């Protein structure tokens, strides 16, 4: 069964021309990532809380190294 997400937030790094990524959280703690252009009908990438923390940490580390 797919998790139910709420409180979707648009990334502050999203483009002004609808190139947007949104992140939401399920009641079980799962993190969902979706493409705003799909208007809630597209696929959702699902991350555990631990996977999400690892992903964000990696992205910040890579950005700092460039």
UniProtKB/TrEMBL annotation:
Superkingdom is Bacteria
Where in this protein does the record put region Disordered? 1-23
Where does the DUF397 domain start and stop, copy by copy?
7-57
Fetch the InterPro entries from UniProt. DUF397
Query: Can you name this protein?
Result: DUF397 domain-containing protein
User: Origin organism of this chain?
Assistant: Actinomadura adrarensis
């Amino acid at each position: 069964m797919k998790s139910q997400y709420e409180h979707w937030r648009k990334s502050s790094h999203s483009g002004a021309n609808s190139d947007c990524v949104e992140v939401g959280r399920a009641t079980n703690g799962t993190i969902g990532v979706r493409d705003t252009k799909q208007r809630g009908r597209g696929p959702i990438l699902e991350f555990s809380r631990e996977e999400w923390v690892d992903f964000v940490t990696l992205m910040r580390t890579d950005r700092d190294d460039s």
